[in-house]
Specification:
Largest sheet: 9 strands, mixed
Number of domains: 2
Order of helices and strands: HHHHHHHHEHHEHEEHEHHEEEHEHH
CATH class of the largest domain: Alpha Beta
Strand order of the largest sheet: 3-2-1-4-5-7-6-8-9
Strand content: 5-15%
Radius of gyration: 24 Å
Shape: globular
CATH topology of the largest domain: Rossmann fold
CATH architecture of the largest domain: 3-Layer(aba) Sandwich
Helix content: 40-55%
Number of helices: 17
Number of strands: 9
Length: 480
């Protein structure tokens, strides 16, 4: 029986080790071990089911060989093996007949064994060995615990950026409604929350072996950082994706926009691109001059428009700054509204991502290939009696019942309103449009006003910096 007590006991053991510092390192340490245990459990099942199955890694480095026996390697001998034999071997694996081999190599390129005590490491291993990932009950229970581990990232310093509340991923996926056979992409996939929700959404559509093959091959994800990438690979295997070879580790924005061709286009994009961050110098050069900025969320929005097929659908999370920002942001929004039908914006309270950030966010839904004629807005309500979301009272899937009921039968109300494209043009493509039907009793808090003022100041500062950079470039070109 797997329980939260098991995970807590593992974390307690790790806290005794001098080499593991903080929640993020504990999670990273736990995940590479769980990854190898899941890999070995599923491979043992495949060895029985498929004649001539070839393991992804040499027998010496399979979990069962060095970790499976609770009386096996321990102490300095275990630590030496892991640091000086296991990790170098996994990092240098070469491709063979099993696509999982390359996944393992990529997963371990920047993974580390933080634990210094081989004795404590053996204790952690023995705890993990109590889980049988081939047992349906164990896998289901661990899925829930894994979700809790990912959620705990919200309070693990900067690692919180990798976690999108599952209430949001589930709602976005349900409204975008990906179908088996469609290609589904998250270009900033983090720990794989959107892709996991897409699998859960499409799994009931699987009726035949061909359907399952289509599902296995339709999911694509890209993540540039090691920890969330490994978490995502593990998440995909837990969700039944046997060889998640299309989950790549890379910076999606490093590829010039012009290099993306028809073969790169997809049917569905679901994502929460990083926001509030600035890309490394030079990345903006991969984009047309009129869209050049170092604001990550803005560059991803331009990229998503490029990657969607005509008729392709997107559901993405974006901050308020994108809606009201000017300069480059205005040109990006104009492009979005002219090239795509931005049919819906769901406005989310600013505490949905707390404690990682209190920036107000929005869910944007659009279809490529037809211009926008009007945009529907829906303001998501905080539950009655709740002033803000928190770690103990997070946003929940059940709260989206009103949006789900409204989605296919839309009417204006004190929470829903629509704005014509003519009015949006008159506003210079400012999409930060308040609800004209909001009741006068709804008071804006001083904190909200200060946050909004700060966000607009930051947007103005970024716009001014971009203008200065463009003027500097123009002067330098003129002098040459």
């Amino acid at each position: 029986m797997i329980s939260s007590t098991l995970i807590k006991s593992i974390q307690d053991i790790m806290r005794q080790d001098q080499g593991v510092d903080g929640d993020a390192q504990r999670l990273s340490q736990l995940v590479w071990m769980i990854f190898l245990k899941i890999l070995d459990d599923t491979e043992q099942e495949l060895e029985v089911m498929a004649d001539g199955y070839v393991s992804a890694i040499p027998a010496k480095y399979q979990w069962r060989a060095w970790a499976g026996n609770e009386e096996g390697l321990t102490g300095d001998e275990l630590n030496y093996f892991v640091n000086n034999d296991l990790f170098p071997a996994l990092r240098s694996l070469t491709g063979g007949s099993n696509p999982r081999t390359l996944i393992v190599r990529e997963a371990f390129e920047d993974s580390y064994n933080y634990m210094k005590s081989g004795t404590l490491l053996r204790q952690v291993i023995n705890k993990i060995n109590t889980i049988d990932f081939n047992a349906r009950a164990d896998r289901h229970q661990f899925n829930e615990l894994y979700e809790k581990l990912l959620k705990d990232l919200q309070s693990a310093g900067n690692a919180g950026e990798y976690y999108t509340p599952r209430a949001l991923t589930q709602f976005v996926v349900e409204m975008v409604d990906p179908k088996v056979g469609e290609t589904v992409l998250d270009p900033a996939c983090g720990t794989g929350g959107f892709l996991a929700s897409a699998i859960d959404h499409m799994r009931p559509q699987v009726r035949t072996g061909e359907d399952e093959t289509l599902l296995q091959s339709s999911l694509r994800g890209i993540e540039k950082k090691q920890l969330p990438h490994l978490l995502c690979l593990t998440n995909m295997i837990l969700h039944g994706i046997d060889a998640p070879t299309l989950i790549r580790r890379a910076n999606t924005l490093n590829r010039p926009l012009r290099d993306y061709g028809p073969d790169d286009r997809v049917d569905v994009v679901i994502t929460n691109p990083p926001f509030g961050g600035v890309e490394e110098p030079g990345v903006e050069q991969n984009f047309p001059q009129r869209f050049r900025t170092r604001e990550t969320a803005d560059l991803f929005l331009v990229l998503i428009m490029r990657l969607l097929k005509d008729g392709g659908r997107a559901g993405i999370v974006l901050p308020d700054g994108t809606l009201f920002g000017e300069g480059v942001k205005t040109r990006i929004k104009q492009e979005l509204l002219e090239e795509c039908n931005l049919h819906t914006v769901v406005r989310i309270p600013n505490s949905a991502f707390a404690p990682y950030t209190n920036i107000a966010t929005n869910l944007l839904f659009f279809v490529k290939g037809e211009p926008t004629k009007e945009v529907w807005f829906y303001e998501h309500d905080l539950p009655v009696g709740l002033k803000n979301y928190s770690k103990s009272k997070p946003i929940t899937a059940a709260e989206f019942a009103p949006e789900r009921a409204w989605w296919t039968s839309r009417t204006e109300s004190d929470r829903a309103w629509r704005v014509s494209i003519e009015e949006i043009r008159q506003r210079n493509f400012n999409l930060d449009i308040k609800n004209p039907r909001a009741t006068s009793s709804e008071q804006v808090s001083l904190t909200d006003l200060v946050d909004a003022y700060r966000q607009k100041q930051e947007a103005a500062s970024k716009t001014l910096s971009e203008i200065r950079a463009l003027l500097r470039q123009a002067l330098e070109s003129h002098e040459q």
